[in-house]
Amino acid sequence: MQPLVPPFVARPRLVVLGLDSVSPDLLERFRSETPRIQELLSQSARGTLRSCDPPITVPAWAVMFSGYDPGSLGLYGFRHRRAGSYDQMYIPSSATAQRPMVWDALSRAGRRVAVVGMPPGYPPPAVNGVYVSDFLTPDGAVDWAYPRSLVPELARVAGGPFFDISFRVDDRLAVARNLLEMTRRRWKVVRHLWGKGVWDLFAVHEIGPDRVHHAF
To answer: pLDDT, tens digit, for every residue of 13-41?
Structure first.
């Protein structure tokens, strides 16, 4: 996708850090354990948003970044029934959403965007910049970044899978180890992308806290 205007002039830039399943009261309760997040909050715009119905990961993030409700988006959960069927299901994808996201509008306006892990993000949509897929990425997928030419580079940076873990298992110690490793790998990718350009929008979705809630 070619920019319609020069990729950067002096103008405000927006960074979005999405911590899945972290409510504001948790950030308040764990102030001493989260000094960097607290520093970010002290310098950031903040407020309480009403979640969507249903208030779950898919479609909540798409609602926030599009301004449309789940019905308008055609997104209501992790599994959708196929039309005319009671038992045939499919997992929604980035193509399921029936309305544009903010990074689509910014891309059309020639703004540079980098989006990491924002659901539903597979397959990664074409943007004016970079889009890295989300936790719904199928095992073994090789098309999880846009542009696709970035896949080998980001795979080397990550050093292993970083989309999700198996968290519905009895071995909680293994869950904790895998969760920490997944998070480290993802943030290696995030830091790498941050240094690759000047972004008008840089948005990251972190699924790790959600997996903590599920497992522990």
So the answer is: 899 999 999 988 898 899 999 999 999 98
